[in-house]
Amino acid sequence: MEAVIIAERYRIIRPLGSGGMSHVWLARDEVRHVDVAIKQCTVPPGLRPEQREVIRTWALSEAQAAARVRHPHVIRTLDVLPDPDGPWLVMEYVPGRSLQQLIQDKGALPPARVAEIGLAVLEALGAAGRAGLLHLDVKPGNVLIGDDGRIVLIDFGPAVTTAGVAALTRARVVLGSPKYIAPERLFDRASTARSDLWSLGATLYHAVEGQPPYARGSTAATLRALAAGPPDAPRRAGPLTPVLAGLMRHDPAARLDPAATEELLRRVARPARSTIRRRMPALAAALTLIAALTVGGSAQGVENPPAPLPPGFMWWQDPAGLRLAVPTGWTAHSTVGTLTFTDPADRLTLRVGSWPHPPRDVLADLLDQERAVKLPSYRRVQIAAVPAPVWEFTYTDPKAGPTHVLRQLVDGKYLVEWRTPRADWVTSLPKLTEIRDSFG
């Protein structure tokens, strides 16, 4: 079969998915020699001729407007190609699966993990808002969980600008899934940034409960339930319940604003930072990837420690004001900007530095650092910027052998690196948890 080439450049490889308004394929960019995702935006069935014409009129300019949004948690559009049947969007290809697929495969997710996802989507919506745009199609199927841990909002709605939204409103066109559309969009034909917050709440509800907030079977039954009032009370959400209730208030003016939403989500996501699989920080270049420093001296405790510690730990007080718990018997060494602790067997290493001026785009900076890595047998475990910058990887140290490294921003200002032999990684994690949670 002859290969299909789009715009004399993008060779179609295989389908990735399809929906009511688009078909997506994996393609090869024969110019840049990279894989991309390419989507054709189409007009959904069931619309009147004048409604279809409005969508066709606005499709290209709205797609070009959405393509201008640049953020690590928003899928990057590389090109927009005009076509009479609907514009083609060429996007970065992020291997992974949608939140919808993740829920189908694994069921309801823990509240802390859902909060992490919510923070990423909230950041994406903030980036769109700063560009003067709405998304208007936030739902689990449009949240992509990359194989590398990256969380990406995809597929903006057909109208994202004020003018585009107004044009579709005049034509009485409301597109999307009723399970996630804000009630004012369905019943009042009003779409604002608060409408995206409702959809975020409905998406998080689905993720933590394992089903949409208005799961009533038919579309008509869903709409009746939505018009009647709030969704069913969540049973699994736990600490996430106030976020869901605050985002899914019928009155848009009464909903949580982005700042309050972020604060509540961070409180819920905080336990996720203590788990083995948490996201690693984008540490500054000052924390080197190479061999551990030679250390000397003993870790010094402080009198009258501010809080009790488990057996085997003592408080360390740095003259500059840093206080943290360290295992008893570890040695310490200080260099300019970095404090290093090592266990008596010289196998586990903790490094702490400061990060006074983090880059504006943490994830992009972290990925740039990774591209410069030349470590033997380097393998990424996880990279993410939310809820805190994180970078975790393994490599083969020329002297120590297989090594596992975790780098994370702690307490908003400390860069922490935890380095162990790969075989000791799991058994060392309780120590790391105690150390990280003691910062102050």
UniProtKB/TrEMBL annotation:
Which SUPFAM superfamilies is this protein grouped with?
Protein kinase-like (PK-like) (SSF56112)
* UniProt keyword annotation of RNA-binding present: no
Q: What class of enzyme is it?
A: transferase
Q: Which GO terms describe its molecular function?
A: protein serine/threonine kinase activity
Protein name per UniProt = non-specific serine/threonine protein kinase
For this protein, what is the EC number?
A: 2.7.11.1
Record PROSITE patterns: PROTEIN_KINASE_ATP (PS00107), PROTEIN_KINASE_DOM (PS50011), PROTEIN_KINASE_ST (PS00108)
What residues does ATP bind to?
K39
InterPro entries reported for this sequence: Kinase-like_dom_sf (IPR011009), Prot_kinase_dom (IPR000719), Protein_kinase_ATP_BS (IPR017441), Ser/Thr_kinase_AS (IPR008271)
| Top-level taxon of origin | Bacteria
Q: What UniProt keywords are attached to this protein's entry?
A: ATP-binding, Kinase, Nucleotide-binding, Serine/threonine-protein kinase, Transferase
* Protein kinase domain location: 10-265
